Amino acid sequence: MFVTNEATFYVLRFVLGAAEAGFYPGVILYCTYWFPSYRRARVIAMFMSAIPVAGIFGNPLSGWIMERFHGANGWQGWQWLFLLEGLPAVAVGVATLFYLDNSVRGAKWLTDEEKAVVEGALEKDAAHHTVHGRVLDAFREPRVWLMCLIYFCFVMGQYALTFWMPTFVQSTGIEDNLTIGVLSAVPYVVALVAMNVFGASADKRRERRWHLVIPSLMGAVGFSLAAGWAGSTVLSLIALSFAAAGVLTCAPLFWSLPTAFLGGTAAAAGLAVINSVGNLAGFVSPYMIGALKDATGSASIPMYVLALSLLVGAAAVLTTKKQVVNR
To answer: Which of 45, 50, 163, 211 has a CA positioned 20 to 30 A from the CA of residue 196?
Structure first.
């Protein structure tokens, strides 16, 4: 039986964080082995569509599991939630090892002519990269640390939605867990559309900076409006939908920046550094929101802080050179 003390919760969070720390940059790096820069925003947007899809189906499912299974076998609802939603991830992870090919050259489902086309596009794209031969070079690259700042600002908003969306909805007066789960899915539907539209547009126009700045501004406006409309469920959902569309679109569009200039051995290390530093916001954001709510007694102040974080991220994006990232 699970132990339900606070220490167990932190252990579980650490394990989940450690798993994500390796998975996420690994997928981004894997995409660079198959797709040139001018196709990457759409591909990463498709991959990261799993986040809003998980929100669309996961929030109602989570609410149902916690209601339906609470007390079964002596376990609390959240314990069943971890078990029932964790098992499919384990199964898919094992299947992935046997399904995905390591390289274009090793793909059995491509002809030699098709492999040559893909590899030619990747080689042409790689000519624009700053190639680093050593892992330590990634830590000496100033642009890597700029990417860390940008990603940290955007992840602040992303984790706020992930952890606090049900609480935001509940604060409007909704009490039933299943209803909260269903309503919490609405912003993710909007985000699913927005992130794929922006990703396709960024690749078509080969423009990265403003396709990233505009969603971050959308997120800032959405959080600000949510702060002022907390008393209305309908208006809050509209504001949260705007915020979700913005911050979740930032994630796939962001990765088109570092993958446009990082190359060589240090590319993997650089992406890992960016992901690791940026995901520190996954610790800062939920606790900051809780601390500010406790200190001020208001749910609005944290919203404004999240909006400010997105504005800082947008400003940092505009400091990047367009000739480096706009490909």
So the answer is: 163
The single residue listed with the structure tokens 């008393």 is 231
Give the rounded distance of the alpha carbon of 158 from its chain centre.
6
Q: DSSP alpha helices (H): ranges in 101-176?
A: 112-126, 137-140, 142-170
Q: Are 192 and 55 within 8 A, CB to CB?
A: no
Query: How many Cβ atoms are within 10 Å of 240's Cβ, its own excluded?
Result: 29
pTM: 0.77
- Looking at residue 285, its amino acid is S
DSSP code at position 72:
G
Please give the C-alpha separations between residue 241 and each of 69, 92, 153, 213, 274, in angstroms, as whole numbers: 30, 30, 19, 18, 27
25 and 269 Cβ atoms separated by less than 8 Å: no
> Which runs of consecutive H residues, i.e. helices, occur in 206-265?
209-228, 233-254, 258-261
Q: What torsion do the CA atoms of 267, 46, 240, 296 make, to the nearest 10 degrees?
A: -30
- 298 and 59 in contact (C-beta within 8 Å)? no
Residue 208's Cβ-side half-sphere holds a number of Cα atoms within 13 Å equal to 28
Nearest to 275 by CA among 245, 305, 254: 254
- Here the tokens at position 40 are 């990457």
Please state, in angstroms and rounded to a whole number, the distance separating the CA atoms of residues 169 and 185. Answer: 10
Q: Facing residues of 132 across strands?
A: 264
- Residues 6 or more apart from 172 whose CB is under 8 A from it? 230, 231, 232, 233, 236
**Over the stretch 134-180, which tens digit does the pLDDT of each residue have?**
666 667 788 889 999 999 999 998 888 877 777 778 777 777 777 77
Q: What's the Rg (C-alpha) of the chain?
A: 21
**Tens of pLDDT along 205-240?**
889 999 999 999 999 999 899 888 877 888 888 998
Strand (E) or helix (H) holding 201: helix 177-205
Give residue 196's Cα distance to chain centre.
14
**C-alpha–C-alpha distance, residues 197 and 98, integer Å:** 32
